[in-house]
């Protein structure tokens, strides 16, 4: 049985996907949920909180799970396999989140509120980057990557490639995600493995 909060998040996901975050209103979200606008504020502080709930609860959750499991995979699995999984999960997350979040940049007040909420939650795009860089650093310390490898740069390249793929997917066909992940990881590892 769905709770009122679940109804709000589900309705918001549809409205935000259709209209973008900047153009979606709490009135539209309430209408789509079959609730009063006041009901939204019993569960969320504002539209930014609703949006973060949509990303966290209705978007692809694989990226969070994959990144959370990285410390336990250090030295235990082939680096290429782990990185392919990260790139696939990141590409999926960005593909679903990009259309909703893109309009954030068109509304300075909304963007500022969003940044503030991310800081409160110690969240944001730097978190996946730090998790992946931490994994690569641990693999480097084990000698599975070259001693002069730069984990921060490698993490930025992998997640940046996944983000670029999601961006381009709005304009053109991007091909098979597994092929993309395999090619990106193989190209990067050619320069990182000793």
Could you explain how this protein is built, in words?
- The protein is an all-alpha fold and 194 residues long.
- The chain folds into two domains: 4-51, Orthogonal Bundle (Arc Repressor Mutant, subunit A), CATH 1.10.10; 59-192, Tetracycline Repressor, domain 2 (Orthogonal Bundle), CATH 1.10.357.
- Helices cover 72% and strands 0% of the residues.
- It is built from ten helices and no strands.
- The protein has helices spanning 4-19, 26-33, 37-43, 47-57, 62-73, 79-101, 108-120, 126-141, 151-168, 177-192.
- The longest helix has 23 residues, at 79-101.
- The protein is elongated, with a radius of gyration of 19 Å.
- The model has no long low-confidence stretch (mean pLDDT 88).
Protein traits:
single chain, 194 residues, Arc Repressor Mutant, subunit A, Tetracycline Repressor, domain 2, 72% helix
Give a summary of the structure in a few sentences.
The chain has 194 residues and is mostly helical.
How would the blueprint of this fold be written?
Blueprint: H1 4-19, H2 26-33, H3 37-43, H4 47-57, H5 62-73, H6 79-101, H7 108-120, H8 126-141, H9 151-168, H10 177-192
- Indicate the low-confidence ranges by residue numbers: none
Task: Please report which band the strand proportion falls in: under 5%, 5-15%, 15-25%, 25-35%, 35-45% or over 45%.
Answer: under 5%
Task: Please tell me the overall pLDDT.
Answer: 88
CATH class of the largest domain: Mainly Alpha
At CATH level 2, the architecture of the largest domain is Orthogonal Bundle
Structural class: mainly alpha
Query: Shape from CA axes?
Result: elongated
Q: In whole angstroms, how far apart are the ends? A: 54 Å
- The number of helices is 10
Quick one: CATH superfamily of the largest domain? Tetracycline Repressor, domain 2
Encode the helix/strand succession as letters. Answer: HHHHHHHHHH
Number of beta-strand segments: 0
Question: Biggest β-sheet: count, sense, barrel?
Answer: none
CATH third-tier fold name of the largest domain: Tetracycline Repressor, domain 2
When the domains are counted, the total is: 2
Gyration radius from CA atoms, angstroms: 19 Å
The helical percent reads over 70%
């Amino acid at each position: 049985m769905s709770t009122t909060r679940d109804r709000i998040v589900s309705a918001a996901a549809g409205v935000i996907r259709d209209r973008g975050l900047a153009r979606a209103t709490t009135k539209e979200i309430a209408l789509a949920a079959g609730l009063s606008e006041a009901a939204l504020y019993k569960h969320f502080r504002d539209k930014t909180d609703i949006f973060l709930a949509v990303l966290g609860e209705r978007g692809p959750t694989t990226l969070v799970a994959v990144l959370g499991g990285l410390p336990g995979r250090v030295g235990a699995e082939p680096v290429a396999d782990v990185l392919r999984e990260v790139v696939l999960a990141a590409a999926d997350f960005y593909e679903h989140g990009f259309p909703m979040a893109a309009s954030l940049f068109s509304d300075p007040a909304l963007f500022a509120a969003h940044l503030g909420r991310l800081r409160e939650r110690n969240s944001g795009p730097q978190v996946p980057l730090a998790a992946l860089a931490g994994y690569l650093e641990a693999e480097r310390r084990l000698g599975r990557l070259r001693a002069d490898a730069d984990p921060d740069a490698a993490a930025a390249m992998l997640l940046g490639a996944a983000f670029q793929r999601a961006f381009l997917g709005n304009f053109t066909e991007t091909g098979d995600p597994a092929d993309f992940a395999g090619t990106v990881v193989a190209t990067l590892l050619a320069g990182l493995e000793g």
